[in-house]
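Request:
Um, any thoughts?
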Amino acid sequence: MLKRRDIETVVILEPQLDNRVKYSMDDIYKTFVGVDIIDLTNFPIENELWADNNHLNYKGRERYSEYLSTVLD
């Protein structure tokens, strides 16, 4: 439906602390055919920039947002 409306769709795999979740890239590409996939699971973020196991703190969000804006530009 988005493609018919000429809306660009991007799937972003977010950074992870200690890479606890493993993705099957083959499955992701099969599921999201024709969609750009940006894998940022290995984006380097120091431990002190995490608020908890799943969320970045303020400084971490700031750093990641700055990087993400260059990727999506």
Summary: The helical segments are 25-31, 58-72. DSSP finds two helices and two strands in the chain. Residues 10-72 form one domain.
